[in-house]
Design brief:
The chain has nine helices and seven strands. With about 270 residues, it is an alpha/beta fold. The chain has a single domain, classed as 3-Layer(aba) Sandwich (Rossmann fold). It has a seven-stranded parallel sheet with strand order 3-2-1-4-5-6-7, sandwiched between helices. α1 links the parallel β1 and β2. The chain binds NADPH dihydro-nicotinamide-adenine-dinucleotide phosphate. The site of NADPH dihydro-nicotinamide-adenine-dinucleotide phosphate has 30 residues, from α1 and α6.
């Protein structure tokens, strides 16, 4: 049987790294992409090939996909996962930082989809997994730009799914809740770079309060398993939220409506 070929972005840590390793363990040949090559080299093996790239660099993406096709002849799985969370009140996050959030989290995914889809269409097969978030279906104080980027990912994913299903290509979303990776420490470091006037101190404290559960949250293995299940299933769910609290949060947002949900969240953030 032909070996299946995967490309995983954001593979230098957290969910991407766990996914690259699990796919490799399950027989895939994995191109593992991120900016920190030294971190990628730690997982290099007969089944994992590191690729240094920034997802905002269109030319680097084109060259990477060309390399995948010229060396392996096909691409079966794309896991669009590289991302970060720009925290801060909407009034205070600079437009430059907001653009950066979309450049990485949204246009980064779109660039990869545009580059792999011609090959998947030609093969008449393939699976694209777009990593969204519990914030892809809700938005809370201090998470505005990050939530906007994940809502955009979900809208693009739902559109492209319908565009390519006739070519035998699956496009699915995985929506993690809080997972213990480098993500939260990076979010908090970025939050420190945003100048908030004293009026927003309640929001900042609330963010720290919400993210205080991170040390006890699950590790990235459960998300990697969800990706493996999605890419090996003949009929994967189009949106898989996990762990359970991520499913419940989306249901609560839908049931409560915007105003009641905002009240509940403010209580949780101890406003
Ligand atoms: P990590 O911070 O551990 O990993 C993020 C990865 O993205 C790193 O490998 C980083 O690599 C890569 N990355 C960031 N910016 C770029 C860029 N410009 N170009 C290339 N690679 C980049 O976080 P997670 O593993 O937790 O996050 C993975 C995905 O999961 C993200 O999309 C995030 O939004 C989502 N998610 C995470 C949650 C969590 O609680 N952890 C919850 C919900 C969703 P490098 O810096 O080396 O380039």
């Amino acid at each position: 049987m032909t070996q299946r070929i995967a490309l995983v972005t954001g593979a230098s840590s957290g969910i991407g790294r766990a996914t690259a390793e699990l796919l490799a363990k399950n027989g895939y040949y994995v191109f593992a992409a991120a900016r920190r090559l030294d971190r990628l080299e730690q997982i290099r093996s007969d089944h994992i090939e590191p690729v240094e790239l920034d997802v905002t660099d269109e030319e680097a993406i084109r060259m990477t996909v060309n390399h995948v096709i010229s060396t392996k002849g096909r691409i079966d799985v794309l896991v669009n996962n590289a991302g970060f969370g720009q925290l801060g009140a909407i009034e205070c996050v600079s437009m430059e930082a907001a653009h950066r959030q979309f450049e990485v989290n949204v246009f980064g995914y779109a660039r990869f989809m545009q580059t792999v889809l011609p090959h998947m269409r030609e093969q008449r097969s393939g699976c694209i997994v777009n990593m969204t978030s519990v914030m892809g279906k809700m938005s809370t104080p201090g998470f505005g730009w990050y939530a906007a980027s994940k809502h955009a990912v979900e809208a693009l994913t739902d559109a492209v799914r319908g565009e390519v299903m006739e070519f035998g290509i699956e496009v699915v979303l995985i929506a993690p809740g809080l997972i213990k990776t480098e993500f939260v420490p990076r979010q908090l470091a970025l939050l420190d770079t945003v100048a908030h006037p004293p009026a927003y101190q309640k929001v900042i404290k609330g963010l720290y309060h919400l993210l205080a559960n991170e040390p006890t949250s699950p590790g990235p293995a459960i998300i990697a398993q969800a990706v493996l299940d999605a890419v090996t299933s003949a009929n994967p769910p189009v949106r898989h939220a996990l762990p359970l609290d991520a499913k419940l949060a989306a249901a609560a947002r839908w049931l409560f409506g915007a105003r009641l949900f905002a009240w509940v969240i403010r209580r949780q953030m101890k406003f």
